[in-house]
Specification:
The protein is mostly beta strands and 218 residues long. It contains one helix and 16 strands. A hairpin with a 5-residue loop joins strand 5 and strand 6. The longest helix has 5 residues. The chain is globular. It starts with a strand and ends with a strand.
């Protein structure tokens, strides 16, 4: 896992934030760099043992790039790089408002899903992957009550401070078995989800509303 510390001075003292991570267990060995006036965090998403969603992450895998940003209260957050908007330009789905469930069908192996999420105090959003070939079903969730982004195959999570009545922009970037969810430029959760390839995808909402649901391809 990647942790960070905060200081007003390069030589310290360094302080630990209440939530001192950007991503869950799969994102590792990150370094930061500057490119064209922006700062990025570059690490890798591990592979899983025997390519099974229910097993632990192992070592090495695929490069992941996040854009680092400073939030209004001085904390650091990560967001989807703007370049992805330039890469995914073909509109494949447009749904105005969803307050219960939306069947996305089989999404392309490479795509960008985005929507605005508004949750009540006990609100929850589940992105469900049902794979008819393997019989597996897993969920990638944002839970307002638990202040958490999570994946339930082999538990992987990222704490996040959420508030009811606040609209959060959600981006999900897919590259075959790599599924990364970005929550409003605050936190991310990257996962290697083998069952997501060829699966039926669905957004399920509990005490929550999703608006401007879009899927873009390349």
């Amino acid at each position: 896992m990647v942790y960070y510390r905060v200081s007003d001075n390069f030589f310290g003292p360094w302080e630990k934030e209440e939530i001192d991570t950007f991503d869950g267990d799969g994102f590792y060995a990150a370094k930061s760099c500057e490119y064209k006036g922006k700062r990025y965090l570059i690490g890798f998403l591990d592979r899983k043992k025997r390519e099974k969603d229910s097993l632990k992450y192992t070592w090495a895998g695929s490069v992941l790039v996040y854009e680092l940003r400073q939030l209004s209260d001085g904390r650091l957050g990560v967001c989807m790089p703007d370049q992805y908007n330039e890469y995914f330009t073909k509109e494949l789905l447009n749904a105005t408002s969803v307050n219960n469930a939306l069947d996305l069908g089989k999404v392309p192996e490479t795509c960008h899903l985005s929507f605005d999420l508004d949750m009540e105090e006990a609100g929850r959003m589940d992105l469900v992957f049902s794979n008819p070939e393997s019989g597996e079903e897993y969920k990638l969730s944002i839970d307002n009550q638990d202040d958490n982004i999570s994946f339930n195959a082999f538990p992987n999570n990222q704490p996040i401070r959420l508030e009811s009545g606040t609209k959060y922009h959600i981006d999900v970037v897919v590259e075959k078995d790599i599924v990364v969810i970005y929550a409003d430029g605050i936190k991310a959760l990257s996962n290697r989800i083998y069952a997501a390839v060829g699966a039926d995808w669905e957004i399920e909402l509990t005490d929550a509303l999703a608006e401007n649901v879009m899927i873009y391809g390349k």
